[in-house]
Amino acid sequence: MTLKAVPDVVFHTRVRNDALEGPNPFEWKDMTTSDLFGGKRVVLFAVPGAFTPACSESHLPGYEANFDAFKALGVTHVYCLSVNDAFVLRQWALSRNIERVIMLPDGNGDFSRMMGMLVKRTAQGMGYRSWRYSMFAVDGMIEKLFIEPGLQDNPGGVPVDRSDAETMLGYLRSSH
């Protein structure tokens, strides 16, 4: 397999700053692809949207529940990417008790577009969103991609058959 580099983009994230007082102790921090993937063994899974049914009921919880298994296989970081802003992703993580998966906002869809995974969901009133997929990347190079079938604009739905945590764990167990 020919390895492909993870797209070079800037993610606009929010990070906790304990020096800030009040109900919102967070500040903006731009993170580059190099910051997030360089020198790391990363599992990233992308979802069509925060708070959507399949994303909330199986996709995100599956990766959180299997976090220790990923770590045992040498994965350093697990990212959940969505074309949502940092505020939405934080509230989604809080609502689902997500503590170990890192929520990665692709608010403008730049990463998703450069991955070839940005699709229209305008028929559902959702604008542009990421297609559902997962990847394993080592030091910024994509080693394996699992893409849900039927990549297209305005799908009726996108299953969680290939990009789920169990499929990624199976791959990592068999190849590493």
From TrEMBL:
Reported function: Thiol-specific peroxidase that catalyzes the reduction of hydrogen peroxide and organic hydroperoxides to water and alcohols, respectively. Plays a role in cell protection against oxidative stress by detoxifying peroxides.
Domain of life assignment: Bacteria
MF annotations from Gene Ontology: thioredoxin peroxidase activity
Catalysis performed (reactions): a hydroperoxide + 2 glutathione = an alcohol + glutathione disulfide + H2O
CDD domains referenced in this protein's UniProt entry, alphabetically: PRX5_like (cd03013)
UniProt-recorded name of the protein: Glutathione-dependent peroxiredoxin
Protein family (similarity comment): Belongs to the peroxiredoxin family. Prx5 subfamily.
PANTHER family according to UniProt: PEROXIREDOXIN, PEROXIREDOXIN-5, MITOCHONDRIAL
GO biological process, alphabetically ordered: cell redox homeostasis; cellular response to oxidative stress; hydrogen peroxide catabolic process
Enzyme Commission (EC) number: 1.11.1.27
Keyword Metal-binding belongs to the record: no
Pfam family name, one: Redoxin
Domain Thioredoxin: 1-174
Keywords: Antioxidant, Oxidoreductase, Peroxidase, Redox-active center
Presence of the UniProt keyword Oxidoreductase in the record: yes
Species of origin: Jannaschia seohaensis
InterPro entries, per the entry: PRX5-like, Redoxin, Thioredoxin-like_sf, Thioredoxin_domain
Active site per the UniProt annotation: C55
Entry GO CC: cytoplasm
PROSITE patterns: THIOREDOXIN_2
